[in-house]
TrEMBL record, chain A:
Keyword list, A-Z: Heme, Iron, Metal-binding, Monooxygenase, Oxidoreductase
Keyword hit for Oxidoreductase: yes
Protein name per Swiss-Prot or TrEMBL: Cytochrome
A Pfam family the protein falls into: p450
Essential cofactor(s): heme
TrEMBL record, chain B:
Keyword Iron: yes
Keyword Metal-binding: yes
Domain of life: Bacteria
The species this protein was found in: Rhizobium loti (Mesorhizobium loti)
Descriptive protein name: Ferredoxin
Keyword vocabulary terms for this entry: Electron transport, Iron, Iron-sulfur, Metal-binding, Transport
Short name of any one Pfam family annotated for the protein: Fer4_15
GO MF, one annotated term: iron-sulfur cluster binding
Length: 405, 81
């Protein structure tokens, strides 16, 4: 099928003019608000077909209601998570684990990895996370009255936590940030090159730890057993690549969007600064308002879904930002209310694939906000600058220059 | 108040535990422990909030004993009143 062509089985009246990549507000935009820009779909039908809704130009069905997204994501028998999204960039076909495995194989690996990122385990990691946040913010405070939140805080913070998890030293931080940037935001040349570099790095790390085990994530994976056997090289690689890719710019982007919101809302900023015990609840609302990920599934069989003829092999998109602005799920979804209760947001997905790193991500966001507000005075967007935000497969923010002079 | 735990629906979001760690217990993987929960009257507001924040709707307040729970249930969410 040619790119961006509407398949024959899609009724023309079900084609919608909306894409997380190309619709208004999705391309990099100064002072952009891509999550808010997705809310327009709620005026339309619960499901439509968008011909331009992946990076590689394939179309997807778009699920616009939170309750329907829940149905899709909870039904792994009908909607597969195996897309080989990383491997296919290299012309290969192997799953990132556990994301691209379907049940029952998924459950085996999920059980292996869950304890490493469980709420209990994250509590144990918390002092190190806080120490890292404090070091970065103190250094920012000491060096002036302005900084780029993304470059000086959000990215180094998120990446260094991930390095610590993998048991790697901080001095490679800039190298990893560069790889992540090329992989997630690079062009058709940079992206596969970065994918190859990351793959070689993961393989090399596995070889090193195999030879000389230490107390870290990779060593755990190499020594672990599933179904009474050791993991294959491809499985080790599938886990390593996912941990590398998933933990990098998602948390950084979330912190960027959150601090951008606070920079623009001095009264909310002051509320959280004077009553820091509100930050945990506020972080959930910020996760609702500024989620970053589009989740895509592949239909395993023909199914009629809310009147749409989904055929085996079709892509089905569950964009978390669309679910999180669904008026049927959230009262006044466009209002960002830091005291909102009962916040069943979809930032970490639904169903068996619920983000494995969600507990760590949450703590990173909360701790980042706590320490930022405790250590820096009232801040705003620096005059004459405009943060550039964008949509796509992972929503993000390129730069966020703030000022507290 | 009585809370029905739909263990098979739990996907380990741990939103219940985050709000009421003394009421909702997790296993080593971070999923809610099986078995329905009886909630003391003074904890009902907290427990009902936790139930309402489960993204998978894996927790359910047993309506047969809902009479005592009314005050919490009727209370509008902060900021939306």
């Amino acid at each position: 099928m040619a790119l961006n062509q509407v398949p024959d089985h899609v009724p023309p009246e079900m084609v919608g003019d909306f894409s997380l990549f190309t619709s208004p507000g999705m391309l990099p935009t100064p002072d952009g608000d891509p999550q808010a820009a997705t809310a327009c779909v709620h005026a339309g039908p619960p499901i439509f077909y968008s011909p331009f809704n992946t990076r590689d130009g394939r179309g997807t069905w778009v699920i616009t209601r939170a309750t329907d997204q829940r149905r899709v994501l909870q039904d792994a028998d009908t909607f597969s998570s195996h897309r080989s999204i990383f491997a296919s960039a290299l012309g290969e076909n192997w799953p990132m684990i556990p994301l691209e495995l379907d049940p029952p194989a998924h459950g085996v690996f999920r059980s292996l990895l869950n304890p490493l990122l469980s709420p209990k385990r994250v509590t144990a990691l918390e002092p190190a996370v806080r120490e890292r946040a404090i070091a970065l913010i103190d250094s920012i405070a000491a060096s002036g009255t302005s900084c780029d939140v993304m470059k000086d805080f959000a990215l180094p913070f998120a990446v260094s936590i991930f390095l610590r998890l993998l048991g790697l030293p901080d001095h490679r931080l800039h190298t990893f940030v560069g790889w992540a940037n090329d992989l997630l935001h690079g062009d058709d040349v940079k992206r596969p090159a970065a994918a190859r570099t990351i793959l070689a790095f993961i393989d090399e790390l596995a070889a090193m730890r195999r030879e000389e085990p230490v107390d870290d994530f990779m060593t755990f994976i190499l020594q672990a057993q599933v179904e009474g056997r050791r993991l294959t090289d491809e499985e080790v690689r599938g886990i390593g690549v996912l941990v590398f890719v998933a933990g990098l710019d998602t948390v950084a982007a979330a912190i960027g969007f959150d601090l951008a919101f606070l920079a623009r809302h001095p009264e909310e900023q002051e509320l959280l600064r004077s009553e820091p015990n509100r930050i945990v609840l506020a972080a959930e609302e910020l996760l609702r308002a500024y989620p970053t990920v589009q989740i895509i599934r592949v239909a395993r069989k023909d199914i009629d879904f809310e009147g749409a003829p989904i055929r085996k092999g079709d892509y089905v998109s569950c964009a978390t930002m669309i679910a999180n602005r669904d008026p049927a799920e959230f009262e006044c979804p466009e209002t960002i209310d830091l005291m909102r209760e009962d916040n069943r947001h979809a930032a970490f997905g639904y169903g068996p694939h619920r983000c494995l790193g969600s507990h760590l991500a949450r703590r990173e966001i909360v701790i980042g906000l706590e320490e930022w507000l405790a250590r820096l005075p009232a801040f705003r967007i620096k005059e004459g600058t405009a943060p550039i935000a964008y949509g796509g497969h992972v929503f993000g923010i390129e730069n966020l220059i703030v000022d507290w002079s | 108040m009585h809370i029905v735990v739909h263990k098979t629906k739990c996907q380990g979001h741990a939103r219940c535990w985050a709000q009421a760690p003394n009421i909702f217990k997790l296993d080593d993987e971070g999923y809610v422990l099986p078995g329905d929960i009886n909630v003391a009257q003074e904890d009902e507001l907290l427990a009902s909030r936790a139930v309402r924040s489960c993204p998978e709707s894996a927790l359910e307040i047993d309506r047969t004993s809902a009479a005592r729970f009314e005050p919490a249930d009727m209370q509008p969410s902060a900021g939306e009143a």
